[in-house]
Design a protein that fits this description.
Helix content: 25-40%
Radius of gyration: 22 Å
Largest sheet: 7 strands, mixed
Number of helices: 5
CATH superfamily: Glutaredoxin
Pfam families: SCO1-SenC
InterPro entries: SCO1/SenC, Thioredoxin-like_sf
Number of strands: 9
Order of helices and strands: HEEEHEHEHEEEEH
CATH topology: Glutaredoxin
Strand content: 15-25%
CATH class: Alpha Beta
Distance between the termini: 61 Å
Number of domains: 1
Keywords: Copper, Disulfide bond, Metal-binding
Strand order of the largest sheet: 2-1-5-4-3-8-9
Family: Belongs to the SCO1/2 family.
Shape: globular
Protein name: Protein SCO1/2
Length: about 200
């Protein structure tokens, strides 16, 4: 009797371990697609300059070049916008279609979708590969922390903030950061083109 019970226990245990191994295979495949380091794990919702609501994971499959700005900024942000334009002008034409240039607002109260749209039009950035995003204050803070961007409101209309341009690969993993204004962007361009060629 004991032998039968032991045999049944071993048989049921082997079936259970097969089921568990089957279950483990599925997430393992998914984790290859999106790693723990991917921004596509963030559940936050964002609104574009065209007033469309998106999640960051909808951008998967593109190289993302991201910078955090606010449209009423008169100091660093115009320089950051110019730096992003300079990056765009140097992208490999063959793989540029695999790149999104994204400006994320740190001032969602002022930067409504309408304001982002008019800013995009004023700056001739209202077409591919440009994208403007805004979200809640909480989501913006969380995203800034991921990018290691610090910002602080210093007056009703002004913010002090880090000047960082971040490059993410097609899986949403950070691969390069450029810090400063008007700096040499050769390594940034190399990182973007290298990742875009992999797609």
């Amino acid at each position: 009797m004991k032998k039968i019970i032991i045999a049944l226990f071993i048989f049921s245990f082997s079936l259970q371990s097969c089921k568990e191994s089957d279950k483990k295979d599925i997430p393992a495949e998914k984790s290859k697609e999106i790693s723990d380091l991917s921004i596509y794990n963030l559940p936050s919702k964002w609104t574009t300059q065209d007033n469309k609501e998106i999640e960051l994971k909808s951008l998967k499959g593109n190289v993302l070049v991201m910078v955090m700005i606010y449209t009423s900024c008169k100091a660093a942000c115009p320089r950051l916008v110019a730096d992003m334009r300079d990056i765009e002008s140097k992208l490999d034409k063959k793989t540029k279609k695999n790149v999104k240039l994204i400006l994320v607002s740190i001032d969602p109260k002022t930067d409504t979708p309408e304001r982002l749209k008019s800013f995009a039009i004023e700056n001739k950035m209202n077409q591919q590969p440009w994208l403007f995003l805004r979200s809640s204050e909480e989501n913006t803070r969380e995203f800034a922390a991921v990018l290691a961007v610090n910002y602080k409101q210093i007056s009703p209309v002004d913010f002090s903030h880090s000047n960082i341009i971040s490059v993410f690969n097609e899986a949403g993993e950070l691969v390069f950061q450029q810090e400063g204004l008007g700096v040499n962007n050769e390594k940034t361009i190399e990182a973007i083109n290298r990742e875009a060629q992999k797609i």
